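In this section we walk through a basic example: taking a raw amino acid sequence and producing a predicted 3D structure, encoded as discrete structure tokens. The instruction is simple. Fold the sequence below.
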Amino acid sequence: MQGRVAIFQGAGKPMELREYPLPDVGRDDILVRVRAANICGSDLHIWHGRGPGMPAGRVSGHEMVGEVFRLGRDVTTDCLG
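The resulting token sequence is shown next.
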């Protein structure tokens, strides 16, 4: 199974969509299937070249909504217990 990711290519350049194999889930990990992602002000500043420097080839963003896809064997609760 593959996952799709938008890769930052530099200020003002289009993102590049790439597919990667899904990572293995470690014993304490949770793999989340992202259903929706948002672009925030920080992302826009970086893309316009006005924010903190980010090298090309990185994945930016931190605002998303998803569902649990796989649980590690030792995961028994969410972050709220």
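Looking at the output, two observations stand out. The radius of gyration is 15 Å. Residues 2-71 form one domain. In the next section we compare this with other chains.
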